[in-house]
Amino acid sequence: MRETELGKATSERFVPIEVRLTLSYAAGETASTFFTTLRDHCRIMGTKCPQCGQVLVPARQFCPKCFMTTTDWVEVGPRGNLISHTVVYHHGPHQPRTVPFAYGIIRLDRADTNFVHLLGECEIDTIHNGMRLEAVFANNRGAGILDIAYFRPTEEAML
Amino acid sequence: MNELINIEIPMALRWQFGTGRHFSRFIQTLRNEGKILGIRCPQCQRVYIPPRLICGNCYREMAEWVDVKDTGVIQGYTVYYHPILDPVTGEPRPIPYGMALIKLDGADTTINHYLSETDLAKLRIGLKVRAVWRSQRRGFISDISHFEVIQ
Q1: Strands B97-104 and B110-115
Q2: Does B21 reach chain A within 8 Å, measured CB to CB?
Q3: Cis ω on the peptide bond leading into residue A100 (within 30° of 0)?
Q4: Residue B21 dihedral angles phi and psi, to the nearest 5°
Q5: Of A132, A154, B18, B47, which shows the fewest CB atoms inside 10 Å?
Q6: How far are the Cα atoms of A120, A139, B73 from residue A153, in angstroms, in the given order?
Q7: Lowest-confidence range among B25-29, B35-39, B107-111?
Q8: What integer best gives the mean pLDDT of chain B?
Q9: Is B5 within 8 Å of chain A by CB?
Q10: Chain B neighbours among A 132-151 (CB < 8 Å)?
């Protein structure tokens, strides 16, 4: 249990337990480049399959259709179209935002795959599939997916 | 070679369990009085730590509360050099550390707890140990920091 939680540990009817997991995995060469480029240059990068030509985002080392090693890097976004979305109303301890908030499936410009991220700076009611979005980058970036803070509607989408 | 990174995924699992009548009294007494309570089976006379409702041998309901001391005897022990991840912190517990099955004086069951002694040559079954309590008690088994060997 964490120290802050320990004060509550003396409930006479319930014993609260908190186990902290510190998981970590090696991102590998391709994902490392994807995340460090996001961190250092605020650019979202995909990789292109040399056989079928599709641009994979986030960047992948090989094409899942052709099994070809991807070699060419392509900058995608930061704008794109909302393909689908969902609104989260149920609060969970691992959610990155307070409810209600929305997740979108986004097709970034020049990409051939969809990308899941948070939607922000928009009323939940106004979100609709097909709307134009743009990435808002976080001020403090640490080579993670939340270096993109969220996607917001572009000015043209707001008209 | 480009910079290679690790993706960190810190995560906390939180849950709680209902203590039930007997365990509730156990942790309240532990917290409020710094005392360890056991419970005795009316049939086989075994004293359980922590207390439970039903005797595992006789299936009799138990209701006789017994004070158990915070001293006891080592029934089994080991010294860790390859630590587990401490569930409290998510970090490996600093090595070496000792662990023992301890039969507290007045109880018939053992509890698993940490030992301050980490020299295997100095440990043996039958050694007397004493609980070292934390200054602030919260009604949890970790209110005992560890056990130390007494002569």
Answers
A1: antiparallel
A2: no
A3: yes
A4: -65, -50
A5: B18
A6: 8, 19, 68
A7: B25-29
A8: 90
A9: yes
A10: 143-144
* Domain edges within chain B: 19-68, 70-151
CATH architecture of B70-151: Beta Barrel (2.40)
Whether B70 contacts B38, CB under 8 Å: no
Q: Please report which confidence band the pLDDT of residue A1 belongs to, taking 50, 70 and 90 as the band edges.
A: very low
- Write out pLDDT tens, residues A61-82: 999 999 999 989 999 989 999 9
Mark yes or no for CB contact A22/B6 under 8 Å.
no
Residue burial A70-79, b: 16+ Cβ < 10 Å; e: rest: beebbebbbb
CB atoms within 10 A of CB B116: 13
> Can you read off the two tokens belonging to residue B85?
């991840």
Where are the domains positioned within chain A? 28-158
Residue A73, sorted as left (phi over 0), alpha (psi -120 to 50) or beta, turns out to be beta
Find tokens 């060469």 and name the residue.
A29
Average pLDDT along chain A = 88
CA atoms of B98 and B145, how far apart (whole Å)? 12
Task: Tell me if chain A has a CB within 8 Å of the CB of B2.
Answer: yes
Asked if A21 and B90 come within 8 Å (Cβ–Cβ), the reply is: yes
| ipTM passes above 0.90 | no
Query: A147 by DSSP, 3-state: which?
Result: helix
How far A143 CA lies from chain B's nearest CA (Å)?
8
- Residue B121 sits at the chain A interface (C-beta within 8 Å): no
Q: Which structure tokens are listed for A68? A: 């070809």
